[in-house]
Design goal:
The chain is an alpha/beta fold and 383 residues long. The protein contains 15 helices and ten strands. Strands 1-2-10-7-8-9 form a six-stranded mixed sheet, with helices on both faces. A four-stranded parallel sheet has the order 5-4-3-6. The structure holds ligand F0G.
């Protein structure tokens, strides 16, 4: 089959030579990747610091989160291996992506989600894309254990980030950033839950700066000391990787699993991260750090970003910028730095939390009368 014209057909096509696919692999794609890298115009001035902050708006992927990058690879490889069903535990975004890519591939998706603890948009997606959606009376960590056990007893492929193909897909975000900036940033800030994404980004940055034939990073499950995937290095630099967690779900900050994680940022409500060891390797190799944020700080930054820049991300995503702003203000991230923050998911995923934050202040009810509309405008404009 041929494709017409010069269409963008997804990240596997674009980075085929740096991903574990062959010429005749059937690609399962929804046109994911190639997301905007937006330079913040107003927030740096608000905090009075001379820094360049870019946000990688992953909420513009086909199902509204970065998970699509990993899912195109995981489902492509599952189909290639003859699998008829995929399964995942999820705080919402992985289940949406798994459901969509399984639908595209014509296979089944089973998703385990914590009852009452996923954002409404994500639940709507899993159901609409036709996943068999199992709400469990337990949290994400319980679901993850169940998924790993059931995969030994039923013919299903796990598409959580313990599936190494997921990280291979997600590493392409770093390729896009390096290509667009013409260099690696000084700091790359991400929200951390399972720590798959921070690990994937590090793999991507390392491959972008490693000569062919050399070992890339200890975090990469594919790296056997003679990596097949780096092309000629695009850049020599690598960023410090900074991972931010919600205070109620911050096992990396505590140094041990958290038994009953809680946070308004439900996407990162995870107490027992699957990529524990890899994430520590990332910190050691990159010279970065983990830190935590209170729920209110996360929500304040979500709103600041929406109101000052016109960019709407979900609460978990705002943790990256929230942490970065705090560390810029304190000088831990010095002036003159180039910083990239990943906005992992779209704000539309979680309308309840958004409306809950602004309803009373912003939503006014009036009669359908000209004078009332006019007076509202004049009052607001102070004329
Ligand atoms: N941001 C969002 C919006 C997420 O959905 C997730 C993870 C993360 C950040 C953290 O990424 O786990 O790679 O460190 N969501 C998973 C899910 C767990 O099920 O959708 P991570």
């Amino acid at each position: 089959m041929t494709t017409l014209g010069n269409r963008y057909t997804g990240l596997i096509s674009r980075y085929r030579d740096r991903l574990p696919v062959s010429a005749d692999t059937r690609l399962i794609s929804l046109g994911e990747g190639n997301t905007p890298l937006l330079k913040l115009k107003n927030i740096p001035a608000l905090i009075g610091k001379n820094v360049e902050i870019y946000v990688k708006y992953e909420g513009l992927n086909p199902t509204g989160s970065f998970k699509d990058r990993g899912m195109t690879m995981a489902v492509t490889k599952a189909v290639e291996a003859g699998s008829k069903a995929v399964i995942c535990a999820s705080t919402g975004n992985t289940s949406a992506a798994a459901a969509a890519y399984a639908a595209r591939a014509g296979i089944k998706a089973f998703v385990l989600i914590p009852e009452g603890k996923i954002a409404m948009g994500k639940l709507a997606q899993a159901m609409m894309y036709g996943a068999i959606t199992l709400q469990i009376r337990g949290n994400f960590d319980d679901g993850m254990e169940l998924v790993k056990q059931v995969a030994n007893e039923a013919p299903v492929t796990i598409v959580n980030s313990v599936n190494p193909f997921r990280l291979q897909g997600q590493k392409t975000a770093a390729f896009e950033i390096v290509e667009e900036l013409g260099r690696a940033p000084d700091y790359h800030c991400l929200p951390v839950g399972n720590a798959g994404n921070i690990t994937a980004h590090w793999i991507g940055y390392c491959e972008s700066s490693t000569p062919i034939g050399q070992k890339v990073t200890d975090s990469c499950a594919f790296c056997d000391g003679d990596c097949r995937y780096p092309k000629a290095p695009i850049t020599t630099g690598r960023p410090k990787m900074v991972g931010y967690q919600a205070a109620g779900s911050a096992p990396f900050v505590r140094g041990e699993p958290v038994l009953n994680p809680e946070t308004v940022a439900t996407a990162i409500r995870i107490g027992n991260p699957q990529s524990w060891a890899q994430a520590h390797t990332v910190m050691k190799e990159s010279g970065g750090w983990f830190d935590e944020l209170a729920d209110q700080e996360i929500l304040d930054t979500q709103r600041l970003l929406a109101m000052s820049e016109g960019i709407f991300c979900e609460p978990a995503s705002a943790a990256s910028l929230s942490g970065a702003l705090r560390d810029i203000k304190s000088g831990k991230i010095p002036e003159g730095s180039v910083i990239v923050c990943t906005l992992t998911g779209n704000g539309l995923k979680d309308p309840d939390t958004a409306i809950g934050q602004c309803a009373s202040a912003v939503l006014k009810t009036i009669d359908a009368k000209l004078d009332q509309v006019r007076d509202s405008i004049l009052q607001t404009m102070g004329v």
